[in-house]
Amino acid sequence: MRRRISFLAVVLLCLTAVLAGCGTKDAESVVKDLDKTLNGLGSYHGKGTMILHTGQQPLEYQVDVSYQKPQYYRIALTNAKKDITQIVLRNDEGVFVLTPRLNKVFRFQSDWPANQGQVYLYQTLVQSILLDNSRQFAVDKDAYVFDVMANYQNGSLARQKIWLNKSDYAPSKVEVSDANASVMVEVKFDSFEFGSKLEKSVFDTQTNMGTPAGDKPTTALPSDDSSNSSNTSNNTSDNSSTANNGSSNNSDQAATSPDNNAAQSDNASTNSNADNNTSGDNPDNSASSSTNADNSSNNSSDNSSSNASEDAEDTMAPAGSQSFVALEPSYLPDGVSEKDQQDIVFGGNAGIIIRYAGDYEYTLIETQPKDVAVSQTKGELKDLGFTVGALSGSLLDGEQQTLTWTYNGTEFRLTSGDLPENEMMKIAQSVQGEMSK
Q1: Model confidence, pTM
Q2: What is the DSSP string of 369-422?
Q3: The three-state (H, E, C) secondary structure of 279-347, written as one string
Q4: Which of 12, 13, 52, 60 matches a 20 to 30 Å C-alpha distance to 158?
Q5: Would you give the end-to-end CA distance of the chain in angstroms?
């Protein structure tokens, strides 16, 4: 009898040990495992859905993210309703933001994503867990849940909850909240696979643009966009109906065709009174010609308004000949109101320029380019949630700042000499609804 009891006791102890070993881990054990997983990360591929609650209406995007050691990244964001995709790449050539539908490529000198996090990148999520010593830990069925501080460019995002599968620590869900605990960003992964075998073409710029091999598009050298385009906002306020239209014509001639011959670049500069800018004479500086043409047209609003008017008349389409649906920011900084707006046409592409005044002064230009050539730009990548923008210029250096981004086929350009960066981000993120007229 005693032997039987002893035997049962041993069996129970063994079962307890086995169950304990297969049971739920504590936070410390999971954190150690995550550190090992991150250090040994070779590749992954994930697909899912992202929903943004930062505007008046929720916006849904399909997310496709790929990573290959040591520094290859591909993120594709597709608007579920508009079927428009924007791709962020990092490869041996640099960091690129691609919009294949518009044939647009921006190249950046950037350490992305090391210098900024993305909610759909595994490295960003795990690092936020490892670095937050005040992390909160819970268990939810088949997942470990961490509640940690959010460290994103959008300062209104305060905390995030991260669901990791118990089996392999793959992310299944992420919720990012503001200071009021309201969920602003949701990401749900339908699939996430470690150790994915990714072809080199996945991270190739030409392949993602749909450009045939060997037919490499002409790419202009980076320009100092901050200095050349900085007067867009202030100088248009002196003569909106003439200078703005002149600016739109000339900037488009230079910006949308940087791979045309030098004569076209020179012609664009001449039409915009940019004879003093030498970028048109050098095909390597065609991207600089783009922004110089834009700036020169605006600067000529006081002294050469008649020339700008003539240029504007050449490109202004007859009323009703084209349709352009402008999008209106739902957010305005305190003490700011809309001053005026002007319908314009950029080289045959309909557009609009809106000026705002008050405690801050800034200009928002919207256009719908049908097809533009490949170009490079200097600037800092900014994560807007639904897309990636380029910020050039620095208020600290006495320069005006310009934030450029593309959304649903419309290109936006927000320029100001006094608007703080966080306010620019809020305005850009709020441009969603159609403008009421």
Answers
A1: 0.67
A2: -S---------EEEE-SSSEEEEE--GGGT--EEEEEEETTEEEEEEESS--HH
A3: HHHCHHHHHHHHHHHHHHHHHCCCCCHHHHHHHHHHHCCCCCCCCCCCEEECCCCCCEEEEEEEEEEEC
A4: 60
A5: 92
**Is 25's pLDDT higher than 80?**
yes
Q: State the DSSP code for 117.
A: -
Question: What pLDDT, in 10s, does the model give residues 91-145?
Answer: 999 888 888 877 888 888 778 887 778 899 999 999 999 999 999 999 988 999 9
**Is pLDDT of 238 > 80?**
no
C-alpha to C-alpha distance for 7 and 9, rounded to whole angstroms: 5
Read off the DSSP letter of residue 53.
Answer: -
User: Could you tell me the pLDDT band of residue 275, with boundaries at 50, 70 and 90?
Assistant: very low
Task: State the Cα angle at 11 between 10 and 16, rounded to 5°.
Answer: 100
The number of beta carbons lying within 10 Å of the beta carbon of residue 2 is 6
Mean of pLDDT over the chain: 73
Strands 401-407 and 327-329: unpaired
pLDDT digits (tens, 9 = 90+) for 171-221: 999 999 999 999 999 999 999 999 999 999 999 999 999 865 444 543 433
Question: Taking a C-beta distance cutoff of 8 angstroms, is the pair 277, 296 a contact?
Answer: yes
Domains and CATH numbers, the chain: 27-209 (2.50.20.10), 225-434 (3.30.200.100)
Give the pair of three-digit tokens for residue 298: 């605006």
At 6 the pLDDT is: 59
Instruction: Identify the three-state secondary structure at position 230.
Output: coil
Residue 301 CA neighbour count, 13 Å, CB half: 22
Alpha helices in 2-109 (DSSP H): 2-22, 27-39
Q: Which helix (H) or strand (E) holds 431?
A: strand 431-434
Residue 177: C-alpha distances to residues 154, 186, 295 (Å): 11, 9, 40
Q: 399-402: long-range contacts (C-beta < 8 A, 24 or more apart)?
A: 399/226, 399/227, 399/230, 400/226, 400/229, 400/230, 400/231, 400/232, 400/233, 400/234, 401/226, 401/230, 402/225, 402/226, 402/229, 402/230, 402/232
